[in-house]
Amino acid sequence: MADNEAQTTPTPPPASDSDISITFTHHGTPHTLTFPPSATITDLSTHISATLSIPPSHQKFIIHPKPGLLKPPFPSPSLPLSTLTNRKITLLAPTPTDLTTLSKPTLPTRHSSPLKPANPTPHRDWKKTHDTTTYTFHTLLPLPHLPNPSRSLSFLQRLKADPGILHAMSTHHFSVPVLTEMDPAAHTTHASRTLGLNRNKGEVIELRLRTDAYDGYRDYRTIRDTLCHELAHCVHGDHDRNFWDLCKEIEKEVRQHDWKSGGRAVSEEVFYDPQGSEGAGEHVDGGGWTGGEYVLGGNTATNSRAPTQTMSRREAMAKAAEERMKRQREAGGGGSGASA
């Protein structure tokens, strides 16, 4: 056929007595076509493409009962149409108008918003999350019989959340069940004051938070340095060379990773120099203490408190949870409270 010769649309031959009729539904409209007895399903697809302007690539036939869903290219192109005359046929295909719309590129309008890049999903450091919840102080326990225990709890919470302490706990895998405050009266004599205690290599750590008169709190960084000292007792009980090396290492890590203060120490002095002076009559502790029960605010080494004040670690943790619930009820918050 020459290039300038008009193409003609194929039409089925004139109907005869032996011709077959195929009826299908497209978008709710029935269409009936006539074909010769030898016509196949490929002929049906070609005729729909010519008469309805729906190319085979967009045609899907649902034939009920079987064969079900068929679409070009057909698995059996020579399937006789005569086998489909009494079946329900539905053509799933866009209309010519739909095809025209789909073929046109969508151009941005004056009022259309520019496409915004997708925000990447934030990366979660699962190792850091695990370390934060594992290597930490699992229960914070202020002494309820001392004035203003809520302030002591805030002090303990600050120590637990300190960036330098967090780093040291994770680095050395320290997991401490109970961090509590020390009763000054129980650890003060006319000759000395104890600043901290570590019981059973990290089962309970006590810190002297308050002044001797109970009316104030000691310097935060001094207490934090005391905590570094007690953390070193989780590994070494005696004040030997290994202990002091670890203690100074923990102090250095805590100060370097305290981003809140720029990672700078207050002074060049190492607080726990065993030959240095730590204050009139003050000493950090007598070394790691092992054995016995935890005494709430008492002197465990001498076990001088009444038996009713002696508490196991489990009892101390239960007491802490009870105190949290009591404070929440008094504040009107209700609930069981978050685990410290």
UniProtKB/TrEMBL annotation:
<dbReference type="Pfam" id="PF08325">
    <property type="entry name" value="WLM"/>
</dbReference>
<feature type="compositionally biased region" description="Gly residues">
    <location>
        <begin position="331"/>
        <end position="340"/>
    </location>
</feature>
<dbReference type="GO" id="GO:0070628">
    <property type="term" value="F:proteasome binding"/>
</dbReference>
<feature type="domain" description="WLM">
    <location>
        <begin position="128"/>
        <end position="326"/>
    </location>
</feature>
<feature type="compositionally biased region" description="Polar residues">
    <location>
        <begin position="103"/>
        <end position="112"/>
    </location>
</feature>
<dbReference type="InterPro" id="IPR013536">
    <property type="entry name" value="WLM_dom"/>
</dbReference>
<feature type="compositionally biased region" description="Polar residues">
    <location>
        <begin position="299"/>
        <end position="311"/>
    </location>
</feature>
<feature type="region of interest" description="Disordered">
    <location>
        <begin position="97"/>
        <end position="129"/>
    </location>
</feature>
<feature type="region of interest" description="Disordered">
    <location>
        <begin position="1"/>
        <end position="21"/>
    </location>
</feature>
<feature type="compositionally biased region" description="Basic and acidic residues">
    <location>
        <begin position="312"/>
        <end position="330"/>
    </location>
</feature>
<feature type="compositionally biased region" description="Gly residues">
    <location>
        <begin position="286"/>
        <end position="295"/>
    </location>
</feature>
<protein>
    <recommendedName>
        <fullName>WLM domain-containing protein</fullName>
    </recommendedName>
</protein>
<feature type="region of interest" description="Disordered">
    <location>
        <begin position="274"/>
        <end position="340"/>
    </location>
</feature>
<dbReference type="InterPro" id="IPR029071">
    <property type="entry name" value="Ubiquitin-like_domsf"/>
</dbReference>
